[in-house]
Amino acid sequence: MSRSTRFxxxxxxxxxxxxxxxxxxxxxxxxxxxxxxxxxxxxxTTSELPAITLPPQPPSDYAGFIAQPTACAATAPAExxxxxxxxxxxxxxxxxxxxxxxxxxxxxxxSVELDPGIAPETVNSxxxxxxxxxxxxxxxxxxxxxxxxxxxxxxxxxxxxxGYTIPDELPDSGFLYETxxxxxxxxxxxxxxxxxxxxxxxxPLPPAYSVFGKVIEGFETxxxxxxxxxxxxxxGEISVPLETLYIESITIAE
Length: 254
Hints:
8-stranded antiparallel beta sheet
């Protein structure tokens, strides 16, 4: 290699070194400085970033409900013990009269009148479960203001019951589920168990749910319940209480 050739190679190497130094010397060759300069008023570290508050996640089972605050600033009752039955015991109720019951909730009392004359099997089962303490400490897992409130599932998933089912005792075609009506939820014909609902408004439901009573006092309690904050369930329905509404007890008086 001639002297002039070696000189040209030397000059090229020096130029390449100067270009790498100007670009910061990294593999990216972006030309960006190694240390960014923060604009005035901007945070410079992650510890200075504002905290992000996520909305509360609606509970999907009993454990989730007992982990959140109690509705109406009430004290939560003791946790429930599971109860399973093969069949409801005969309560000796007369079909000639009515049965009074008081549903005591975190937000107050709801007095209801049960009618064995229109739904003897349903009333007998409800009274049996109430007297056994089955409902004590359970929650209302579904609240739809202007429509219904639903309870009676100890797991609070909306899928469980007492271990047995009873036959449907359905109203006549055209029956109006009016405000205060007490009826049983189900997942199809003759699947009634322990889940029940109370109507918060008149609704033209199909006559597919056994009606067994009505509210006679405590409509102000229903109003308080309807004001509980709600979140979405797994299907997107805004009906899951974000403050837990417990059934403290259901007392029966014939």
